Amino acid sequence: MKAKWQASFWRAALGVTLALLAAPRPASAQAVVSNPLDPSPFGVNFLKWEFLKGHADVWTDLRQRMTLMKAAGITWDRDGIDKNTVNPKPGVWEWGFTDKVVALAGEQHVHLAVILMGGPPPRDEAGRAAYAEYVYQTVRRYKGSIKVWEIWNEPNIPSFWKNPDVKLYTLMLKAAYAAAKRADPSCVVLGGSANGPGNDWFNGIADEGGWDSCDAISLHPYAMSPDPIKQRLDLILHTINGVVRAHGPKPVWITEDGWRAAREPAEEAKQATRVFQTYVIALANGVHNIDYFCMDDYDHWGLIHSSQPFDPKPSYTAVQTLTRALGAPGPAAPFVGYLKMPSGVAGFVFRRPGRRRVIILWNNDDEMRTITLPQRTGLTAMDILQNPVPVTQGRLALGQFPIIVSGADIRRLGPVSPAFDPFTLPKGTNLIYNGALDAAPDSTVGAWKTPGNWYPGVFNAGGKDADLRVTGGGRGGSTCLSIAKAAGAAAWNNAIIPVKPGKRYELTAWVKTQAATGKNVAQIVWYSGNMWTPMGAVDTVSQAGTQDWTLVTAEGVCPRDAMFVRVHLRSEKNTGTVSFDDVALVEE
Q1: Backbone Cα Rg of the chain
Q2: Which of 90, 94, 293, 452 has its CA 20 to 30 A from that of 8?
Q3: Whether the Cβ atoms of residue 501 and residue 239 lie closer than 8 Å to each other
Q4: Same structural domain, 284 and 381
Q5: Quick check: is 160 in a domain?
């Protein structure tokens, strides 16, 4: 059903665009070259013309960037037309530079998804009217060339909207939608533009009556985890799809997502895998368009080191490999299901014309495996860096990089189903990575490094005014975490964990105290869909005095607008010592 309404969505938009191509252009848009929509899901944030406009070689640079995009199989760029550029003061409109950018994109067959933002967020009727007029004028001018418009950028965090307010954003969204549709009834308006998955933000837009004031939603599911598997991106997108179903079907766009990598070969190789996996997992969850942030190497996020001279990273090759395998430009091969694979292996199947299928394989962990596919002949394979991978009688080695297998025939492939989801965890799985608090020895004798996926302090709120230690005094001689002499509130916190709204979770931990005072607990701390805002906590029973290892528990139901948990091991006003070990969070 999803494929049918997505196809209808693009056919309708494309039909109107082609009609516009045949119609005379208004005088105000003579510099614009019309450009039909490309249904390809592959996009980036790259052109950044607002940052380049003062450069002497801006047009050479933009043309080169567009060429590099297309060579990677990417035809969508997400960027902004800044209100301050085209409407520097009331009643004044300056289109010259932007006209040239849009004309160049049309000439190069690069499609633009444009952010409409600039100046302080509108907080009253006058501000919303001025913003709506900017939307109307911009959409009207470029309606023959640009069809996708995004209303603001990350308004759910203070970086782009001081004191975020979903009611105010929704009022602006309603005004912007009406203005955009008045200017171009066939345009596509993206609403939300949420930092993180933003389930709370989208629920709020719906609660405020704004769900029908956008044609699709956009989100930025950046990770606070080392890779998309530990991030549980699959679960995050499942949850967002549930939010969309609850409020009314719409396409989902990821207009930003990215992975940083230090300029070291090993780290850039890992980035290639993470970028590739992000695109694939998003496609398997029906995401309509994915615009990676970014192609240039801003703060080490990029797919290339530089565009002039061209210096690609492994991640550029990985994306190019994926677009060639699934098809670009034009619609990508649709996801049809998973192959049934051994535990720890993900096997995605995409449909090519006729009986042909493309298989994408990787390990969900750090193990090296040899697997055997049901089809024994006619297969070829390469890794994401385009190195050939031998396939003998269906057997191949699965190692560091994901592998793309071509030549698969649906008649010989064996069962394929969405039910074989390789990311579904068995009931009772501990959702905390390194719940055992295992730590490696430090260079100092008797000292330990901080356990992986654990951090000193209360997340984003201090909590380090105490003696926070990693010791070898855990249960059975293992490492554990301790807090002593906590004058105020001190804690250890773990890497963020995605959870399911409405589900019940149980936290267990072992606690040991030595002359402990005050409050000493393990906590489930719920966080909103922006990943930063706490939404309440559930505590275990506080422990005090002196006692040996004791098992403590807490349980709670994830609120509707929460989507993440951080477990905090917390001590307040404690003149003694509390230690924690073997922490587990389980979905009941």
Answers
A1: 26
A2: 293
A3: yes
A4: no
A5: yes
- Residue 236 DSSP class: H
Query: Looking at the domain assignment, is residue 16 inside a domain?
Result: no
Measure the CA angle with vertex 218, ends 213 and 222; round to 5°.
Answer: 155
Whether residue 429 lies inside any domain: the answer is no
324 & 235 share domain: yes
The kind and range of the H/E element at 169 are helix 166-183
Write phi, then psi, for 544 (nearest 5 degrees): -145, 175
Residues 73, 191 share a domain? yes
DSSP of 178-231, one letter per residue? HHHHHH-TT-EEEEEEEEBS-HHHHHHHHHTT-GGG-SEEEEE---SSSSHHHH
425: number of Cβ within 10 Å = 12
- Interstrand relation of 148-151 and 188-195 (parallel, antiparallel or unpaired): parallel
Q: What is the mean pLDDT of each run of 10 residues along the chain (588 residues)?
A: 37 37 35 65 96 92 97 98 96 97 96 96 97 98 97 97 97 98 97 98 98 98 95 97 97 98 96 98 98 95 94 98 96 97 96 96 95 96 97 95 97 95 96 96 87 94 94 95 96 96 98 98 97 97 98 98 98 98 98
Return phi, psi of residue 162, to 5°: -60, 130
Q: Output the DSSP codes for 82-151.
A: EHHHH-SBTTB---HHHHHHHHHHHHTT-EEEEEEE-SSPP-SHHHHHHHHHHHHHHHHHTTTT--EEEE
Does 276 map to a domain?
Answer: yes
User: How far apart, in whole angstroms, are the C-alpha atoms of residue 483 and residue 466?
Assistant: 7
| Burial group, residue 325, by CB count within 10 angstroms (0-12, 13-18, 19+) | buried
For residue 368, the Cα-to-chain-centroid distance in whole angstroms is: 27
Structure tokens at 218: 């956009």
Structure-block tokens of residue 213: 């004031």
Of 363, 332, 334, 333, give the one whose Cα is nearest residue 347: 363
| Residue 144 zone, left/alpha/beta (φ > 0; ψ -120 to 50; rest) | alpha
Q: Nearest Cα to 410, choosing from 358, 458, 447?
A: 358
How far apart, in whole angstroms, are the C-alpha atoms of residue 508 and residue 361? 35
Number of domains in the chain: 3
Supply the range of the domain harboring residue 319: 38-329
DSSP notation for 377-427: SS-EEEETTS-EE--BTTEEEE-SS-EEEEEEETTTS--EEGGG-TTPPPT
| DSSP at 352 | P
